[in-house]
Amino acid sequence: MDRQGIHLPDFPLPAKLLCTAVFILIGVGILVSEAKVVLKYRMVDGKPGFSVQDLILSFHGHPGAPLVEVKLRLAPSADHKEFQKPMYKEQVDYLIKWTKEGCSASEEDFAPVVEMIENNCVNCHDPDAVASSTPFWVDRTVKHDLVAPVFSRSGAISATRLVHLTHIHLLSNVMIFALTGIAVLFCRTRSGLKAVLVLLPLIAVALDIGSWWLTAYVSYLFAYALMLSGGLMGLAFLLQFLFVMHGLWLQRPQAESA
Ligand code: HEC
Questions:
Q1: How confident is the model at residue 75 (pLDDT cuts 50, 70, 90)?
Q2: What is the pTM of this model?
Q3: Burial letters for 34-53: b for 16+ Cβ neighbours within 10 Å, e otherwise?
Q4: pLDDT of residue 258
Q5: Alpha carbon of 111 to ligand 1 centroid (Å)
Q6: 109 C-alpha vs ligand 1 centroid, how far in Å?
Q7: I need a surface site. Which of 26, 139, 182, 211 has the fewest CB within 10 A?
Q8: C-alpha to C-alpha distances, 99 to 65, 68, 104, 120, nearest whole angstrom
Q9: What are the C-alpha distances in Å from 63 to residues 59, 152, 188, 190?
């Protein structure tokens, strides 16, 4: 027990109120973020309830399936539901087979793809339409080099999106837990325990963000680590919260307790 210096019980009332209010609001923030994750991803696998499968599909995609199969068959968004109808079965089968066999550029193999795209996709997959980020044609000609890379991509979340998510989450989460960690440093408790309390949420942050990348690009098995990291972060914050509240409101100041 370190008895040197000022600790949470010695804080003046305004400082205690500041710490308490900040901790409560951060706690609400963490609950809301975790709820957001559950709401955002729970239906990805088409079944209600949040599961590791939802995370695998969101970050890794369907193991072994090219993006065109994911979009048209395995997990179609509203725009693509149409293509699950039996009337499209043969054509969609062909697109998937063509993609899995290496997106042959030979005229004979590519012609049915062009026909399908011209008839069904270019209303949206046009430089000026809703799917303008992935146009399949320019100047009213379907281009092999616009189609093949998009069709054959894995369904994994894109690196651009991950960079974007990483920079926001890493910086904000580290700032939050640096702040709560500072309060923990003022707990009147053993420094070994404090070290665990301040590091635990930061380890959870590293595990969380690291697992996005590993799930997307190394193995879908890291989705389990991703699932765990969310729980670990909540638990780590809860421990900090309990220690800090105990120090602020239940322990007696140094002068009295000495
Ligand atoms: C009604 C509009 C619409 C039609 C028709 C449509 N798409 Fe899409 N497509 C979209 C939109 C919007 C996106 C981007 C959002 C998403 O991924 O669902 C998209 C995305 C995709 C993607 C993923 C692109 C990426 O980089 O994530 C593929 C592959 C795709 N479409 C294939 C097709 C194929 C093949 C057809 C025709 C058989 C088709 N789409 C028809 C609207 C459409």
A1: confident
A2: 0.75
A3: eeebeeebeebbeeeebbbb
A4: 47
A5: 19
A6: 21
A7: 139
A8: 10, 8, 8, 17
A9: 11, 13, 50, 47
Which sequence spans correspond to the domains of the chain? Answer: 8-58+157-257, 64-152
**Alpha carbon distances (Å) from 140 to 95, 128, 143, 151, 204:** 20, 12, 9, 19, 50
pLDDT surpassing 80 at residue 256? no
Ligand 1 environment, Cβ below 6 A: 67-68, 71-72, 77, 79-80, 83, 116, 120-121, 123-125, 130-131, 134, 150-151
Rg (CA), the chain: 26
Kindly indicate the confidence band of residue 1, based on its pLDDT and cuts at 50, 70 and 90.
Answer: low
Entry field: residues in the chain: 258
| 234: Cβ contacts below 8 Å, ≥ 6 apart | 30, 34
Which residue, among 137, 101, 103, 138, has the nearest Cα to 120 in the 3D structure? 137
Q: Give the nearest ligand 1 atom to 76 CA.
A: 18
Q: How confident is the model at residue 49 (pLDDT cuts 50, 70, 90)?
A: confident
- Residue 2, pLDDT above cutoff 70: no
Cα–Cα distance for residue pair 111/150, rounded to 1 Å: 17
Q: Tell which one of 69, 77, 80 to mutate to probe ligand 1, the residue whose CB is within 8 A of the most ligand atoms.
A: 80
